[in-house]
C-alpha cells in the first residue's frame, strides 16, 4: 500500500498535535502533582477544552 504525500502530511500533523497535548497533560500532572486540587483540576479541564478546539481546527485545516 502506497501512502501519498497528502496522507503523510495529515498523519504527521495529527501525531504532532496529539503528542503536544499529551505533553501538556503530563506537564500539568508534574506541576500539580497526583492530587491536582481545585486549581489543577480547572487547568486540566481547560487543557481538555483546548484539545477539543485544537483538534477541530486541525481537522478543518487538514480538510482543505
Which helices and strands appear, and what pairs or packs with what?
Layout: H1 5-32, H2 37-63
Number of domains: 1
- In N-to-C order, the SSE pattern is HH
The oligomeric state of the chains shown is single chain
Tell me, what's the shape?
elongated
Radius of gyration: 15 Å
Largest sheet geometry: none
Work out the strand percent. Answer: under 5%
Number of helical stretches of at least 4 residues: 2
Cα(first) to Cα(last) distance is 24 Å
Spans of at least 5 consecutive residues whose pLDDT stays below 50 are none
Mean pLDDT: 88
| SSE-based structural type | mainly alpha
Report the strand count: 0
The helicity comes to over 70%
In short:
The chain is mainly alpha-helical and 64 residues long.
Structure write-up:
Helices cover 86% and strands 0% of the residues. It is an all-alpha fold and 64 residues long. The chain has one domain. The relative contact order is 0.13.
Summary keywords:
single chain, 64 residues, mainly alpha, 86% helix, 0% strand, elongated
Amino acid at each position: 500500500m502506497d501512502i501519498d504525500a497528502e496522507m503523510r502530511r495529515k498523519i504527521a500533523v495529527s501525531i504532532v498535535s496529539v503528542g503536544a497535548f499529551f505533553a501538556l497533560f503530563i506537564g500539568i500532572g508534574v506541576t500539580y502533582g497526583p492530587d491536582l486540587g481545585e486549581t489543577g483540576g480547572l487547568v486540566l479541564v481547560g487543557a481538555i477544552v483546548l484539545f477539543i478546539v485544537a483538534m477541530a481546527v486541525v481537522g478543518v485545516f487538514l480538510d482543505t
